[in-house]
Design brief:
alpha/beta; TIM Barrel; 11 helices; elongated
Length: about 350
Amino acid sequence: MKKFELLDMSYNEILKTVNVCGLEKYRTDQIIRWMNRGIFAFNEMTDISKPMQIKLSDIFQVDAPCITDKAVSSDGTVKYLFRLHDGNIIESVRMKYEHGDTSCISSQVGCRMGCRFCASFGLPFIRDLTSGEMFAQVAVMNRDLGIRTGNVVIMGIGEPLDNYDNVIGFIKRITSNNGLNIGARRISLSTCGLVPEIIKLSSEGIPLTLSISLHSVDDGVRSMLMPVNRRYSIDKIIEACKIYTDKTRRRISFEYALLSNINDSAQDAVKLAGLLKGMLCHVNLIPLNAVKGMDFQRSGHREVEQFKKILLDNSIQVTVRRELGNDIEAACGQLRRRFSETEGRIRSGGNA
C-alpha cells in the first residue's frame, strides 16, 4: 500500500486518513502535537505505544528536512543548512530581536528570478518547496533551539509568489489553532514584484506584511539588477501595491538595498520619495551584504544617512535594517553557495 506523506497533510486530511484506517480520532491530535514540536519520527512520539508507532509507520511516511550544518553568530543569529529528502539543500535563519525571535525560511530550492546582487544568483532553480517543507524549517529550528518563534519572514532562498499555492498553504498552517498558532500580522512575505500574484494575494484575507524588493527607481537600472522588471515595470508594481493597500489596509514595506554609485544618489532618494508619496508604506534601507564573486559595493555611511534624511524630509517612513549574522554569512544563499562550492570541489577532487 502506498504511504501518505504526512508532512504535507492538513489536520483534516490526517483526521480523515486516521478514520479510514480504523484508528481513534485522538491519534490525529497526538501526531499534530508532536509535529508542531519538530518531531516527525513516530518512534520519538513517546505517548504513542510501540505497536501503534509501527502501525502509523505503515500508513504514513515523513520526508522531513534534517539539519546538515549550523552556524551561530556572536549576535545570536543562527544559520541552518537543511538537507531535504531528495538531497537538495536549503537555508533558514533564526534571528533575535527585542520583540522576539524571528524565523527566516526558504520557499524554493534555488530561484528563477536571477537578481544580480543576491547570493543565490547563479545557483540553479531546482524545485518548489512544499508547504510541509516550509513548516518543518520553523518547527525544527524551534526544537533545536528550545524556543518558539514569534515571527516568520518568507525571505530566504526563492521567490515566494512564484510558489504561490504552497506558500499560502504554509501560512494557513502556521496560523491555525492546529498549527503553530502564529498571528498572520507576525508574518512577512518578500517578493521581487510578481504583479498578478500581488493582486491575488490582496484577496486572500491574510493580514500579513508584504515586502517589495524594489532596489531602484529607474526601470533601466532595476532591469539590470532584477530581470523580473522587464516583465513588470516599476509603475506596474506600484499600481499593484496600491490595489493591495486599498484592499487590505495593510502597510507595505519597500526593501531598498543601497549599492554604491548605482542607486544611492540624492536624486534617487528624491525620486523614490515622489514615487511613494501618499502611499501606506515604509522604506527599509538595506546595507548590501558582501558576496564573493559579486561586483557590487555597499554604499558608505554618509550616503546611507543622506538617503534616509531625504526620505524623512519628504514624510516617507524609513529605517535602516539592523545587520545580523555578518560573521556567519547569514545573508540569503551565502551558506548554501559556500556549501555547494565546497561539495563541488570535493566531487572534482579539489581542496575543500
